[in-house]
Amino acid sequence: MNPKQLVGEEAAKYVKNGMVIGLGTGSTAFFAIQKIGELVKNGLQIKGVPTSKATEELAKSLNIPLLAIEDVKRIDVTIDGADEFDPQKNLIKGGGAALLREKIIASVTDFYVIIADAAKGSEVLGSFAVPVEITPFAKEITMAQLKALGCQPVLRVKDGQAVVTDNQNYIADCKFERIDEPAKLAAKMNAIPGVVENGIFAGMANVVISEDGNGGLLSL
Ligand SMILES: O=C[C@H](O)[C@H](O)[C@H](O)COP(=O)(O)O
């Protein structure tokens, strides 16, 4: 089985009848959502909370009932992917530009399940450039302030245009050599006025499930 499907289906085991489930974004979360769709088709009763417009469309196509965000108080379990993780389960997320909604949803989640290829694991975060959601207004000032934290910010561009997030913001990808104190760096980034949110998810994940390269499962 494709490793993403393996971990996606494993994560779906956390989903139980009656729960409110945060639905992550990306090519790994896709498989968990597919599996949840199958379970719903077979009678499982849950309500989903999507972390992006793309996931909302996917969930609707699978007939997964969704909760309006204004009605969400707590979420039992959220299943999402990650771009990098360390042994303490700190994460870098936002490779698909969904980090803001993902972090809001993670912040009200009781049990946060991360699914990712084992190759995304590192001893110290920093291999993946940290995606930072910034306001289009004064992006040059914000990127200079991010650079002062020790990275090389690059505005994310697709087809010659700045990538616009679901929240109408831009993404600056900030490559650091190594991130020894993820929570501190995240706080410093968020102290910059033009930063809406950063892609460091420190101390949020309860479990990280990956595939060992031989069809077996690993979990942190
Ligand atoms: O913005 C996107 C999300 O943070 C994704 O969860 C992350 O980029 C991992 O995506 P994938 O599973 O496609 O590698």
Ordered list of secondary-structure elements with their pairings:
Blueprint (H helix, E strand, L loop, with lengths): L2 H9 L8 E4 L5 H13 L5 E4 L2 H9 L13 E6 L3 E2 L5 E2 L6 H9 L1 E7 L14 E5 L4 H9 L4 E4 L1 E2 L2 E2 L7 E6 L6 H9 L4 E4 L1 E2 L5 E5 L5 E3 L1
Parallel strand pairs: 1-2, 1-3, 3-6, 6-14
Antiparallel strand pairs: 4-5, 5-13, 7-11, 7-12, 8-11, 9-10, 14-15
The chain binds ribose-5-phosphate.
Descriptive account of the structure:
It is a single chain. The protein is α/β, with parallel strands linked by helices and 220 residues long. The two termini are 21 Å apart. Helix 1 (3-11) crosses helix 2 (29-41). It is globular, with a radius of gyration of 17 Å. It has helices spanning 3-11, 29-41, 53-61, 99-107, 139-147, 182-190; strands at residues 20-23, 47-50, 75-80, 84-85, 91-92, 109-115, 130-134, 152-155, 157-158, 161-162, 170-175, 195-198, 200-201, 207-211, 217-219. The chain is built from six helices and 15 strands. The chain has two domains: 3-122 and 203-219, Rossmann fold; 130-197, Alpha-Beta Plaits (2-Layer Sandwich). Ribose-5-phosphate binds next to helix 4. Ribose-5-phosphate binds at residues 24-29, 80-83, 93-99, 102. Keywords: Isomerase. It catalyses: aldehydo-D-ribose 5-phosphate = D-ribulose 5-phosphate.
List the defining traits of the structure above.
single chain, binds ribose-5-phosphate, alpha/beta, globular, isomerase, ribose-5-phosphate isomerase activity, Rossmann fold, 4-stranded antiparallel beta sheet, Alpha-Beta Plaits, 2 domains, 26% helix
